[in-house]
């Protein structure tokens, strides 16, 4: 059960209830909570209420904040600012207002970075530099402190900054290049940003066909595959003394690998070319000048490149709301996805979760975005083929089981017919016995009645004889006198 609170200040003071989960209080009409780890991992909450809600037309973007509380577990599941408001009139004449709130990581769009010459520094120092620039430009409630950082760059540690928003800088310079997960952690009144190579834990709550899996889709994307790459390095400085003005679409020459690669500016992955043919792409190493280093980095990129992206999208039942033996499905945790008609069991991380606070037992999950290499791809094909064989065996066994069940049903029907005949005979015998018992009961009843009459007659006779005897005694006594 979820309560939605409204704040007209960034300090989380004086909350007002926009939606009360119990029978009393204000209510919202529709809602969708979207929790995400994709990219910057900005989560959102969209909800709608009608004109009867007392906060209709009283909420403003940016200056109002929304919080969702799980009242059962006393836990916050969302907090952020109102970013968008939509007012609507239906053809029926009803009015509604829809609000979209975004979590606090969206504050990273409220500042910009300025140019910094490429400098050698660690990932942690680089992110600290970015946050320092951000914090100088925004109010206190939009500031972040650097938390835990365990993402490591395995290449050259030359890092620079350009003229971009802080959010775009973090995404392009860190997340897109190094991977990892950017998470928000609140301690007291302070927001910390953690940059983690691994996030979440392995959960034993199942996502399993016949148990809580309503529907499932498994996507395989190989659109980012390159079998041949052209490594390019830093821009070559223009040493000519020219005053010619160029436009923004002007391109500068870059360092390449021809000098150390037999005159070729490209590198091939022969195994991938044999499998998929030629597919050429540019791979840029913007801080590299030395052709030897550039070639080495290019070969390493080919070795490390991911062949395909695997993603599951599933609709599931939130077992944790129905059975205390299970925990709630948590963003970032990894779960075993078990639907062997689609693929063998595999454990993947939940990277998106959607649900309505009005129907929290129904959730839609994006699970995976797991990148795989050529060997993984080959194993994937073998596993799928093997799984299809197993499914066919299962289907064949199912047909055999059905045939056996039909045969058993026929045998059962025959036995039932025999037993029915026996029951019919038994019913006739029972009927005859019932008639005999009834007749005997009537005879016993008549006998009992006759016996009662006889006993009564004997009693009367005894009384009369006693009276006569008493009279006779009295007469004898008189004669003696």
TrEMBL record:
Segments forming domain Tail spike: 122-380
Highest taxon of the lineage: Bacteria
Q: Which InterPro entries match?
A: Phage_tail_spike_N, Tail_dom
Protein name in UniProt: Phage tail protein
List the taxonomic lineage: Bacteria, Bacillati, Bacillota, Bacilli, Lactobacillales
């Amino acid at each position: 059960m979820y309560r939605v609170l409204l704040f007209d200040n960034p300090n989380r003071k004086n909350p007002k209830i926009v939606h009360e989960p119990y029978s009393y209080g204000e209510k919202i009409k529709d809602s969708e909570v979207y929790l995400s780890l994709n990219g910057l991992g900005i989560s959102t909450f969209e909800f709608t209420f009608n004109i009867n809600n007392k906060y209709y037309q009283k909420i403003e973007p940016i200056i109002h904040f929304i919080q969702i509380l799980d009242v059962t577990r006393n836990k916050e599941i969302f907090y952020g600012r109102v970013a968008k408001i939509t007012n609507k009139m239906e053809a029926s004449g009803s009015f509604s207002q829809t609000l979209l709130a975004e979590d606090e990581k969206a504050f990273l769009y409220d500042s910009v970075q300025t140019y910094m010459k490429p400098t050698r520094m660690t990932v942690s120092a680089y992110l600290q530099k970015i946050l320092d620039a951000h914090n100088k430009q925004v109010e206190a409630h939009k500031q972040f402190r650097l938390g835990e950082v365990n993402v490591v760059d395995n290449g050259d540690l030359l890092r620079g900054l350009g003229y971009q928003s802080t959010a775009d800088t973090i995404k392009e310079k860190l997340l897109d290049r190094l991977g990892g997960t950017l998470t928000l952690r609140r301690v007291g009144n302070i927001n910390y940003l953690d940059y983690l190579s691994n996030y979440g834990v392995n959960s034993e709550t199942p996502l399993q066909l016949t148990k809580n899996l309503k529907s499932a889709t498994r996507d395989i994307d190989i659109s980012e595959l390159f079998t041949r790459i052209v490594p390019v390095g830093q821009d070559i400085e223009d040493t000519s003394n020219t005053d010619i003005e160029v436009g923004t679409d002007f391109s500068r020459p870059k360092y390449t690998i021809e000098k150390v690669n037999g005159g070729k500016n490209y590198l091939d992955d022969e195994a991938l070319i044999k499998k998929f043919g030629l597919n050429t792409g540019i791979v840029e190493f913007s801080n590299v000048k030395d052709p030897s280093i550039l070639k080495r980095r290019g070969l390493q990129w080919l070795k490390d490149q991911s062949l395909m992206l695997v993603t599951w999208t599933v609709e599931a039942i939130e077992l944790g709301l129905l059975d205390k033996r299970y925990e709630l499905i948590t963003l970032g945790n990894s779960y075993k996805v078990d639907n062997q008609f689609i693929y063998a069991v595999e454990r993947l991380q939940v990277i998106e979760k959607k649900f309505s606070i009005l129907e929290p037992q129904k959730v839609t999950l994006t699970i995976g975005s797991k990148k795989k290499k050529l060997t993984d791809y080959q194993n994937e094909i073998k596993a799928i083929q093997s799984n299809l064989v197993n499914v066919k065996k299962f289907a064949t066994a199912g047909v055999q089981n059905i045939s056996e069940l039909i045969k058993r049903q026929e045998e059962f029907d025959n036995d039932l017919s025999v037993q029915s005949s026996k029951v019919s005979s038994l019913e006739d015998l029972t009927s005859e016995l019932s008639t005999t018992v009834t007749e005997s009961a009537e005879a016993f009843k008549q006998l009992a009645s006759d016996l009662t009459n006889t006993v009564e007659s004997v009693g009367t006779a005894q009384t009369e004889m006693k009276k006569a005897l008493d009279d006779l005694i009295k007469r004898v006594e008189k004669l003696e006198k």
